[in-house]
Amino acid sequence: MTLATGIGSMPGDDARAYDDTVRVVLGELPGLPFLPELPARGAAGHMTGRGLAIAEGLGADVQPAGWRLTDAAGADLRRARSLLAQDLDVLEEQTQGYIGPFKIQVVGPWTLAATVEKPRGDKVLSDHGARRDLAQSLAEGVRSHIADVRRRISGADRLIVQVDEPALAAVLTGGVPTASGFGRHRTVHPPEASAALGWVLDAIADSGGVPWVHSCAPGTPLDLLRGAGARGLAVDLDQVSAAGHDQLAEALEAGETVALGVVPTSEPDPSLTDTALVERVLRWLDMLGIDPAGVGEQLVITPACGLAGATPGWARQALETCNQAATHLP
């Protein structure tokens, strides 16, 4: 049976919104719910803040240019850690009695390196040693985070950990701007990119989780993600290249998971129905030469990307539409 889930981010900016969002996720996605993220709560609720809250042994704080590493945890990092703990408290309370797979998300090492500054300025991405240390710190923190989630959601018989890497394509092509905005950071070569990502994915697998990688950015090399250890690929179908389609087909044929983003992140034309989405997915599988009846839970239906910019009404309907489409697939 095909499953449905969300990418991670949802609308809302306060504690009550978070409580309501968890209820929505559990209600609309009974087959594969996820831990929601509410970036509108500020830097502490954004994926970078969450990643720093999870990483082990780091100090950081928010400066005018954004997150920056510091000698000790500043007020913003302490808030990010507190917010994550509060969210997990809500999740623990509302998942009492739940049995089944569950998904959590964490920012990837390259997106973190591209969005966090070194103590004296400019991105961590600019320093080989700093980006290595950041990736290893994240990997160690992920181990502890998984253990905490497992303790809280005892009924999760399969824990999927989605690593978000929206900046990876820019990192590999020299597209990340320097602090001045007038230059670009040097290209990171694929072997180094794969190794650092692999540390995080290996930490997930060693902790009993299932490592996925998500990126809705065009040009993301799906073969690199699989080579680094990803056993699930979450993509926006509209952004997949010709080579990417081949990689997705190979992943399915290898027994891995493809989370296919087909539901718009903002309210679309009223003509969009779950039937139309099912037809689109079936055409895609036919193009790949894959029998829909043999895919089962390897195929997961999702929104095209996160829903932080959606209205609360559309965010809920998008998840519902994903689930309806998944239900109607073989």
Write the layout of secondary structure elements.
Layout: E1 3-4, H1 15-28, H2 47-54, E2 59-63, E3 66-70, H3 75-94, E4 100-107, H4 109-115, H5 128-152, E5 156-164, H6 168-172, H7 190-206, E6 210-214, H8 222-228, E7 232-236, H9 242-253, E8 257-263, H10 274-288, E9 299-303, H11 312-328
Parallel strand pairs: 1-9, 4-5, 5-6, 6-7, 7-8, 8-9
Antiparallel strand pairs: 2-3
Helix pairs in contact: 1-3, 2-3, 4-5, 5-7, 7-8, 10-11
Describe this structure in words.
- This protein is an alpha/beta fold.
- It folds into two domains: 1-5 and 231-330, no CATH class; 42-228, no CATH class.
- Helix content is 45%, strand content 15%.
- It has helices at 15-28, 47-54, 75-94, 109-115, 128-152, 168-172, 190-206, 222-228, 242-253, 274-288, 312-328, and strands at residues 3-4, 59-63, 66-70, 100-107, 156-164, 210-214, 232-236, 257-263, 299-303.
- The strands form two sheets. Strands 1-9-8-7-6-5-4 form a seven-stranded parallel beta sheet. Strands 2-3 form a two-stranded antiparallel ribbon.
- Strand 6, helix 8 (222-228) and strand 7 (232-236) form a beta-alpha-beta unit.
- Helix 1 crosses helix 3 and helix 2 crosses helix 3.
- The chain is globular.
